[in-house]
Amino acid sequence: MRIKLFTLLLIMSVSGYARNEDSVKIRAIANEILLHGKAYENLRVLTKQIGARLTGSPQTYKAEAWGQKALQQAGADRVITQSCLVPHWIRGGKEEAWIVGKKNQPLDILALGNSMGTGAKGIQAPVLLVNSFEELEQKKASVKGKIVFYNYKFNDTYVRTFEAYRDAVGYRAQGPGQAARYGAVGVLIRSMSHAADNNPHTGSTRYNDSFPKIPAAALGLQDADRLAALLEKEPATVFLKTNGKMLPDTVAHNIIGEITGSEFPEQIITVGGHLDSWDPAEGAHDDGSGCVQSIEVIRVLKAIGYKPKRTIRAVLFANEENGLRGGSKYAEEARTKKEKHIFALESDAGGFTPRGFGVTMSPELLNKLRSWLPLLEPYGITEISNGGGGSDIGPLNRELGTPLAGLQPDSQRYFDIHHARSDVFETVNKRELELGAVSMAALIYLVDKYGL
Amino acid sequence: MRIKLFTLLLIMSVSGYARNEDSVKIRAIANEILLHGKAYENLRVLTKQIGARLTGSPQTYKAEAWGQKALQQAGADRVITQSCLVPHWIRGGKEEAWIVGKKNQPLDILALGNSMGTGAKGIQAPVLLVNSFEELEQKKASVKGKIVFYNYKFNDTYVRTFEAYRDAVGYRAQGPGQAARYGAVGVLIRSMSHAADNNPHTGSTRYNDSFPKIPAAALGLQDADRLAALLEKEPATVFLKTNGKMLPDTVAHNIIGEITGSEFPEQIITVGGHLDSWDPAEGAHDDGSGCVQSIEVIRVLKAIGYKPKRTIRAVLFANEENGLRGGSKYAEEARTKKEKHIFALESDAGGFTPRGFGVTMSPELLNKLRSWLPLLEPYGITEISNGGGGSDIGPLNRELGTPLAGLQPDSQRYFDIHHARSDVFETVNKRELELGAVSMAALIYLVDKYGL
Questions:
Q1: pLDDT, tens digit, for every residue of B279-309?
Q2: Which of 348-387 (A) contact B at CB < 8 A?
Q3: To 10 degrees, what angle do helices B430-450 and B289-303 make?
C-alpha cells in the first residue's frame, strides 16, 4: 500500500511537473509572439505590397517568392516547393448589371469564380425569383430564357456563422448548374453573408457538364433585397455583363518551410493556410492570416530555442479557392513518398480572436487534445470540438488518415468580409491575429512533445 | 428506498424540464434579437445623430431625450429620470503640442479629462522622461520646471487586456498629481493602449489638491516612441497648449426604463450602461453599446411576451467617465427609498463578441450563476469568473450589498479605441453587439425566474 501510494504520488508529481513545464513553455511562446511577433508585419507586406492573388495571376508567383523568403527569415531549416497544375480562371474585365427601366438601376455584382462570361454584349432577360431549390423545382416550367435569382437568406440565428454558410453555400456552388438544367440563361445569387453593407461576395461555382455554362454573379444584400422587393410587386428584367474565362491549366506551388525533427524526423506535423485568394480584395483574413500564423509557428519555436523532436512543416498551400490542387498535391506526394503524417493543423477561418479547435480524429485522440485544454485556456481556447480541420489538409486525412485540427476563431465578423472587396488588412487586429498564432504554436508544441 | 428513488427521479425530471424550458426561452430571446434586433440601429442614431456626449455638453441632454424615447419604444412600462449634480469639464478648443527645434515636430495630443489648460500662450519646457513612478522618485530632484513624460508601456503579454489597463492607468489618474508634487509644470503620458495607430487616448485624471493643477495630455504610441527615442539621445523641449477648464457643476440625469414585476415588484433587477462618453469620438463601444444592449433587454422580454416576476430596470447612467455621479445617485436613491436591489448587471467593456461574465457576489451565488452556464454557452458565454461588475453599479454593491455582474466581451480590440477618436460606430459589429445583448437578456431572464 505504501509503495502504491508512493508510486501514485510520483506519477502525480511528474505529471504536475510536466504540466508546469508546458505551461512555462507556452507562456514563452505567447510572450515572444505578443512582444516580438512578425505575423502582422508579414501580413501587411503580403496584402499591401502583393495584394489579391487568385491562382494563376502574376501575384501568385510574387506571393510564392514572398512566402519562401518569409519562411527562411522565420528560421526554417529548409524551404522547398511542390509544383502542381492549377486551374486558371480570370474575371476578365469590368462587370456590369442593372435593372432595366426608364431609368436603369445599377446592381453591384461580382461574377462567381470559375463562371463563364456573358460575351461582350452582355445578356438581358426577365428575372425569376426563387428563395430555394424547392421553389426552383416548383417553377421549373418558367425557367427557360430567364435569369434565375436565388435569394436564399443566410440564417442569422446560427450563432456559429459557419453553420449558416454551410446551409447557404449550395446556392453558389450548384445554383448555376441547377438553373441551366431548366434552360436559364443566367444566375444571380444573394451573397452568403450577413454584412450590413452592399458588397457582393464571390466564391467558386461548379457547373453541371451536361448543361450550358451560364453566367452567374453575386449580389450584395442591399441590392438583393431591393431586387426581391421589386419582383414581389412586378416583373423585372436585368442586364448582365460578365467576362469570366477559364484559361488552360497553369503551374503553381505549395511553399513549405521545415524544422527537421531531432528524434523522429520521419514523423511530420503540418501547420498551414492557403496562399491564394479571391481577386477583388487582399485575402487578408482568407487566408493571408493562416499563412502568416503558420510562418509564425516556425519562427516562434526557433526564437524560444525549442528543438522539436518531430519534423514541423509550415505549408502555404496553392489554389484552395477554386481547385484545391495544392492540398491534393501535398497528400499525393505524402502518399507517393510514404511520408508519415501524424497531425495537420490549418488556420483558414480568419485572423480573429481564437476560441477553439475543431478536430477530425478518433475519440481517443480528441480526449488527448482535450486534456491539454487547461494549458490553452489562458490564451482564449475554451473548446476542442469534434468536426473540423481545413480544406487544404482534408486530403491528408482522406488519403492517409492523418488526424486534423482547424483553428476556430470567433466567427461573427468572418462572413462580413469573406470573398468580398472588404477582406483587407485593415480589418485584421494585430493581437487577435497573434493570439491565433499563439494557440497554434502551443498545440503544435504539445503534439510534438507528446506525439499523437 | 423506492419512494426515495421516485422522488429523486421526479426532481431530476422537473429540473430537466425546467432546463429545457429555459433553453427554449433563451433560444427565443436569441432569435428575436438576431433577426429583429434594434440595438444596432439605436446605436447608429446615438453615435451618428448625437455623437460625443461628455457630461454637461449639449449632447448630454439630446442623448437623455433619445434614451427616454428609445426605452418607451422598447416597451418599458414606465420611464423615469433621476437628476444629479455633475462636474462640467470642457476641453475648451484647439490643443497643440510640438517638439521644439529648428523645425518643430508636431505631437498629436488629447488633454486628459478634468485637466486644467496651459493658458492661452501655452507652456514650453524641457521634458523629463520617466518610465515609472519609481523612476520619478529617483529623479525627483530634476523635476522642477519640467514637463514630465510618463512612458509606461501597456503590457502586451496580458492576454486579458483589462489587466494591462489596470496595470497602467495609474499614470493617467495620478501621474499629474505626483509630478506636480515635485514642481513639474506639465505632464505628458503614453496612452493606455496597444493600438497600431497614433491616436492619443484621453480619460480622467485626478489632481492632488495640495499641489498645482498642472496641464496634462496623452500621446499616441507612435509619438510616444518617437519622443522617448529622441530623449534617449539628447535633451528635448516641448511646447504644449491645452485649454481644459472646470465649469460650475451642472445637472444631468439617469434615464430609467422599467418593466414592473408581476409577483415581486419590490425586487429590482438592474441592467445598464453609461450614457456619457469622452468628447473626441462617438462613444460607440464606451458605452453606447452598453446602453443599447440594456434597452434591448427590455425590448426583447416584451417582444417574446415574457412577463418578469421581478421589476427589471434598464438604466442609462449619467457621468461615468469623469465623476460617477449617476451611479452614486442611483445607489443613494435606492438606499433612501429602501429599495430591494437583488442583482445588477452592467455592460461597459465594449460591444464586442461576448465571452463571459465577471461577478462580485458570494461564492454560493457565483455557483448558482455557474450552474446556468450550459444555457449560456451556445451564445458564446464560456466563463463566469470571480471579480467584475461595472463602475456605475459599484455603489449599489458597496452601499446595499447588491450582487453584481459585468459582461466580459472579447477584450482584444477594446484598448485600440478606448477614449480615442477611433471609438466610432463603424468599429462595432452588428452581430457581436447583438450577441452581447442576448447573453445579458438570458442572464436577466434566469435571475428573474429563479431569484438570487
A1: 999 999 999 999 999 999 999 999 999 999 9
A2: 353, 355, 378-380, 382-383
A3: 60
Report the length, in residues, of chain B: 452
Q: Residues B179-188: pLDDT tens digits?
A: 999 999 999 9
Write down the CATH superfamily of domain A24-89+248-450: Zn peptidases (3.40.630.10)
Contact in structure between A401 and A394 (CB atoms under 8 Å): no
Burial state string for A229-246 with b = 16 or more CB within 10 A and e = fewer than 16: ebbeeeebebbbbbbbee
- With beta carbons less than 8 A apart as the criterion, state whether A112 and A176 touch: yes
Q: How far is CA A80 from CA A68, A253, A256, A258, A297, in A?
A: 8, 10, 5, 8, 17
The pLDDT of residue A196: 84
Helix ranges (DSSP H) in A304-429: 325-336, 363-370, 373-376, 394-400, 414-417
Name which of B196, B355, B431 is nearest A430 (Cβ-Cβ): B196
Would you say B312 and B301 are in contact if contact means Cβ atoms under 8 Å apart? yes
| Residues B37, B430: Cα–Cα separation, whole Å | 9
Query: What per-residue confidence (pLDDT) applies to A141?
Result: 98
The residues facing B125 across adjacent strands are B238
What whole-number distance in Å separates Cα of residue B79 and Cα of residue B257? 4
Choose among A30, A196, A412: nearest Cβ to B353.
A412
Four-way CATH pick for B25-88+248-450: 1.10.150.120, 3.20.20.70, 3.40.630.10, 2.30.120.10: 3.40.630.10
> Strands of A96-99's sheet, edge to edge?
A105-106, A96-99, A237-241, A123-130, A147-150, A186-190, A216-219, A109-111
pLDDT average, residue stretch A264-275: 98
The Cα–Cα gap between A413 and A195 comes to 8
- Candidates A162, A352, A379, A410: best to mutate against B (most CBs of B within 10 A) is A410
Beta-carbon separation of A157 and B35 below 8 A? yes
Q: What is the pLDDT of residues B207-235, one digit of tens each?
A: 999 999 999 999 999 999 999 999 999 99
Residues pairing with A267 in the sheet: A340
3-class state of residue A338 by DSSP: coil
- Give the start-end residues of each E strand in A78-215: 78-90, 96-99, 105-106, 109-111, 123-130, 147-150, 186-190
Mean pLDDT confidence for B105-134: 98
Q: Per the structure block, which three cell numbers stand in for B203?
A: 480619460
Residue ranges of the domains in chain B?
Answer: 25-88+248-450, 95-245
CB within 8 Å: A431 and B410: no
The answer to whether residue B410 neighbours chain A at the CB level (below 8 Å) is: yes
Dihedral over Cα of A84, A88, A89, A93: its sign: positive
Q: Are strands B78-90 and B245-259 parallel, antiparallel or unpaired?
A: antiparallel
Fold of A93-243: Glucose Oxidase; domain 1 (3.50.30)
State how far the Cα of B203 lies from the Cα of B395, in Å rounded to an integer: 21
Q: CB-based contact (8 Å) between B40 and chain A?
A: yes
**Contact assignment for B410 to A353 by CB distance below 8 Å:** yes
* Distance from the A118 Cα atom to the nearest Cα atom in chain B, whole angstroms: 36
Residue B30: which of A157, A355, A432 has the nearest Cβ? A157
Prediction pTM value: 0.95
CATH of B95-245, one of 3.40.50.720, 3.30.9.10, 3.40.50.1980, 3.50.30.30: 3.50.30.30
CA distance linking residue B21 with residue A339, whole number of Å: 52
Contact assessment for residue A443 and residue A345, using Cβ atoms and an 8 Å cutoff: yes
The residue with cell 516562434 is: A300
Peptide bond into A223 cis (omega under 30): no
Same fold, A24-89+248-450 and A93-243: no
pLDDT of residue A6: 52
Residue B123 has pLDDT above 60, yes or no: yes
